[in-house]
Amino acid sequence: MANEKIERLEHRLDTFQDLIDQMQKFMDQLKLRASRMHRETHGTDDDLEGESSHHTHFHGNHQHSHPQPPKLDMYKFNDSNPAVWVAKME
Length: 90
Fold this sequence. Notes:
Low-confidence stretches: 45-53
Order of helices and strands: HEEH
Helix content: 40-55%
Number of helices: 2
């Protein structure tokens, strides 16, 4: 019976790790897309780091200023405790 519990817990842990890996891949894809969009929009190879909080665009004779959304700190999962990591991310 104890072995069955351990096996179920190990299976759940493996499932959580798979989900975390999928989320990390998704976040990496989002970061790559954001970087590409930034380069396409601004015609620069600069990374998103160090950008001002507002961007000004000129369209014809009109000037448009768009505030950038705030940056989010993302914690990398260190394989220790998924519950703590999820709590930090929330």
